[in-house]
Task: inverse folding
């Protein structure tokens, strides 16, 4: 019974987020405007560098700009305090009492959210990009399949990291500082600002030691054709490893936090 609940939770997440039509339209407009600004900045950088930077020509750099803005909402690059508030108020006890796994239930809901936001939030920037700068996308079906897999893994890795931020409320009285640190880190290390390949060596090494590039940079690399062949398979392998580690860490953190909740609550 519990296993069949997770697809239903994903559908419920899709339907719940589909009700916010005005917010979705406003977000799509903002993503498109920022995509245009970012495309101008990145293509200008490529032109100033002589026509290519770390494997990115002008069209590929513009594609990365449009794609990163298109995927910003589905990937939920930035964390929120929804779970932390439930922990702080004690409402998480209701989640723990339900006949489904809290982490898996939240993951299913998040996949439904991402599935809805993919088209209304993601398609407008890509359409504008196709009409203005052009898009550099995979030539064959294999690139799209791997790109879609990398995107699903990116959504899941983002969820797993945001889950860890949320359960930190079991130990922190206020998670706002952690949320700010997460937002700054995600903005830089996911490649949202500029591609990770453009980082100086020390920052690229720091990014590679974290799961952040697996959220946005990995699917962007595959969908723009920057990474292909066996290198693309390695990228997906790294994503799978990060996802397994983060989900396990989140499960352990919840178990320890729930014990703490029970002890404090008597």
Result:
């Amino acid at each position: 019974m519990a296993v069949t609940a997770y697809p239903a939770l994903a559908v419920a997440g899709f339907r719940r987020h589909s009700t916010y039509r005005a917010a979705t339209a406003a977000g799509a407009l903002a993503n498109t405007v920022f995509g245009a600004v970012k495309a101008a900045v990145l293509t200008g950088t490529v032109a100033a560098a002589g026509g290519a930077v770390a494997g990115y020509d002008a069209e590929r750099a513009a594609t990365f700009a449009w794609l990163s803005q298109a995927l910003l909402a589905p990937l939920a690059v930035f964390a929120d305090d929804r779970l932390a508030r439930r922990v702080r108020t004690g409402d998480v006890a209701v989640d723990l009492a339900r006949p489904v796994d809290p982490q898996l239930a939240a993951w299913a809901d998040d996949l439904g959210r991402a599935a809805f936001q993919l088209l209304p939030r993601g398609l407008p920037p890509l359409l504008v990009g196709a009409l203005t700068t052009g898009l550099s996308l995979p030539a064959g079906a294999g690139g799209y399949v791997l790109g879609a897999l990398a995107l699903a893994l990116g959504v899941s890795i983002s969820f797993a990291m945001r889950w860890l931020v949320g359960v930190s409320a079991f130990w922190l009285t206020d998670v706002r500082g952690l949320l700010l640190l997460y937002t700054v880190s995600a903005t830089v290390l996911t490649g949202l600002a500029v591609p990770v390949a453009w980082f100086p060596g020390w920052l690229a090494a720091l990014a590679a030691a974290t799961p952040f590039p697996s959220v946005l940079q990995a699917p962007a690399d595959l969908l723009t054709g920057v990474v292909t062949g066996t290198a693309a398979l390695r990228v997906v392998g790294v994503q799978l490893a990060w996802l397994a580690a983060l989900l396990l860490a989140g499960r352990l953190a919840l178990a320890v936090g729930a014990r703490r909740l029970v002890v404090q609550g008597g």
